[in-house]
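Bug #2210: token dump truncated for Lipoyl synthase?
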Amino acid sequence: MTTLIDARNARAARHPEKQKREDTPVLRKPDWIRVKAPAGGVFSETRNVVKENNLVTVCEEAGCPNIGECWSQKHATFMILGDTCTRACSFCNVKTGLPNALDADEPKRVGEATATMGLKHVVITSVDRDDLPDGGAEHFAEVIREIRKAAPGTTIEILTPDFLRKPGAAEIVIDAKPDVFNHNLETVPRLYLSIRPGARYYHSLRLLERVKERDPAQFTKSGIMVGLGETKEEVMQVMDDMRSAGIDFLTIGQYLQPTRKHAAIDRYVTPDEFKGYETIARAKGFLMVSATPLTRSSYHAGEDFEKLRAAREAALAAGRQV
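Reproduced locally. Full output below:
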């Protein structure tokens, strides 16, 4: 009983705004969703580097199912701007509340950890920081600069907030010239009010379009979750919207419910359906598509970046506009 009480208290501390909600039903996971528990020497090495540098990872904070595989290969996604988000999306397991002040030394520590781990490709994400005048944009830029300084051969992928109502913030990050600018649309427009109430679908779409307008060389990337009640037609419309905004790389993964206070899973989408989405997306012109039940924004990001770059080169060689 103590364990149950402690677990409930821990959830309440992370998501106080959700505690008055009714518990949502939990569906039994199909075999294709099950993953191995994290273990092994390399996994421990990765964890030690993260802890020694006093860093936060979205792998831990969001309860990513791929942490065992990724950390065992020395892949980790660093989460900057603290561990507390100013929004309360119904799908997300990151802690919500009033964040602490920015850690001015964090960019340097991220750069040093990237170098220590010998990462060829690093992914940087963050919580939403609506409390900051620029939404944390300058901090993102400083992290990019510190990684370039400490690990000049490393390619950098960022997964940013939407910088809603922060004029000029996106441009600060774009001008820092990451190799990949990622911002997730997360779901179809119809579900925004219940799943992503603090965001605006067309604002997010426009953010990615502005990246291409300002720096066409930057790759753009976005992802959605399925299994929340969306229809196939709605997913296909999102694909079309993304292509109209010039997005290069699409990820599609299964939504997994963090707790019974979070949005319920409508259904588990089958592997065959994911293959169908991948086929459709490639036909619509995306340079790169990752669509599997366990796909997440940074899953296999390094390998996928190499494929993405090769796809652009092949398209240009064939005379196709990208």
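Output looks complete on our side. The radius of gyration is 19 Å. Marking as cannot-reproduce; reopen if the truncation happens again.
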